[in-house]
Amino acid sequence: MSHLLAIESSCDETSLAVLEEGQLKALTISSQIEFHRPYGGVVPELASRHHLEVIHPLLEETLEKAGIGLSDISEIAVTKGPGLSGSLLVGVAVAKMLGALLDVPVLGVNHMEGHLYSVRLEHDVPCPFMCLVCSGGHTQIVHVVEEGQHVILGETRDDAAGEAFDKVAKMVGLPYPGGPVIDKMAKAGGDKEAVDFPRPMLNKGYEFSFSGLKTAVRREWLEREQNPDALPDIIASFQEAVVDVLVQKLVRAGRKNGVSRLCVVGGVACNSRLREKLQERAAVDGFELYFPKPLFCTDNAAMIGRAAWDLRKHLLAEAGPALDVEVSLDMMRVNG
Ligand code: KG4
Ligand code: ZN
Predict the structure, then answer these.
(1) I need a labelling partner for 135 at 20 to 30 A (CA). Which of 161, 232, 263, 329 fits?
(2) Ligand 1 close to Cβ of residue 82 (< 6 A)
(3) Is the pLDDT of residue 335 over 90?
(4) 135 CB under 6 A from ligand 1?
(5) What is the pLDDT of residue 324?
(6) If 0-12 CB within 10 Å is exposed, 13-18 middle and 19+ buried, where does residue 103 land?
(7) pLDDT digit string, tens, across residues 158-181
(8) Which architecture, in CATH terms, is 125-291?
(9) Residue 159 CA to ligand 1 centre (angstroms)
(10) What CATH superfamily is the domain 3-116+296-318?
């Protein structure tokens, strides 16, 4: 029986998982959000220190949950990039040390490809599928033609969608990370039609740009004299504008490329309005639609293990002692 140990430490979550033949057996996640909240964003030095502190206890906990010992591990998968260098380094160093100790291959996984295949932890989604990868650092529409052939149709020119949520929240005095807070506030009673914010590049190509929208929100907030009573409406209208753009582009990408399966992954895929609106559109337009559950949307090692399983033949060919952190790694194996 093959047991794969997966490690994720690219940003502010330390996470380990064990998968057996591509199926998740155990997952642990230690989130650092509380430590970074006072600073309104992730502080890289703090992040790497916390990864170092928790990774070994998490390893023991994960193996125990999976009911296996170190000697049962037959492969290791680790996020090699993109991400924060000091944070990535902790995961990669531990993976290489364990790989040498156990004499098993260490597969370096692209974090974005982890998100891409996260949907397969619960759903049997065959290729081709059209995937909106929507996290704190990236917004991309990726045509997954087959395992290992990922065509990026478009990405963001400036802020990622999650980044826009986080920055807007900070601007109006809401805590970090902004996405879940905005989602909750909008749901609790904001009027999404109160402000007609711009929908940037709605009907143009597959690229995104959210910085102009962010500026429009700032202007509205200042015009309303930063009145807290106006906040839920502004927030709900901002969210609606982001969601409209994401939905429109993903649906168009599916239609124009003749792909009937749509997926949304990454932290922003937790957004309840995005889920609701896409479900409505998919039902009307006849698409199959898949979201991972929220636990698998935000950063976790299960998705790294699943991507390693799905891309195994490519990753095994690349495995070796040269494995290193790649801070600005692009999505691999792109043929556009
Ligand atoms: O994928 P992820 O955990 O980390 C990265 O790889 O970046 O995504 C984190 C991002 C943050 O920007 C956070 O605000 C956003 O996902 N996010 C949300 C929601 N939950 C998390 N954005 C909108 N609505 C949510 N419910
Ligand atoms: Zn991520």
Answers:
(1) 232
(2) no
(3) no
(4) yes
(5) 87
(6) exposed
(7) 999 999 999 999 999 999 889 999
(8) 2-Layer Sandwich (3.30)
(9) 13
(10) ATPase, nucleotide binding domain (3.30.420.40)
| C-alpha of residue 267 to centroid of ligand 1, in Å | 3
> What letter would DSSP give residue 148?
T
CB-ligand 1 contact for 162 (6 Å cutoff): yes
- Given ligand 1 and candidates 165, 265, 274, 291, which is best to mutate, with the most ligand atoms within 8 Å of its CB? 165
Interval between CA 67 and ligand 2 midpoint (Å):
27
Would the CB of 128 count as within 6 Å of ligand 1?
Answer: no
Residue 55 has pLDDT above 50, yes or no: yes
Cis check: omega of the bond before 105, within 30 degrees of 0: no
Looking at the CA of 271, name the nearest ligand. Answer: 1
Where exactly are the structural domains of the chain? 3-116+296-318, 125-291
What per-residue confidence (pLDDT) applies to 38?
A: 82
Chain segment 215-262, per-residue pLDDT in tens: 999 999 999 989 999 999 999 999 999 999 999 999 999 999 999 999
**Residue 170 to residue 168: CA distance in whole angstroms:** 5
Residues facing 50 on adjacent strands: none
Contact 104, 74 (CB under 8 A): yes
| Mean pLDDT across 12-32 | 95
| The pLDDT value given to residue 121 | 98
Q: SS3 letters for 5-26? A: EEEECCCCEEEEEEEECCEEEE
Q: pTM of this prediction?
A: 0.93
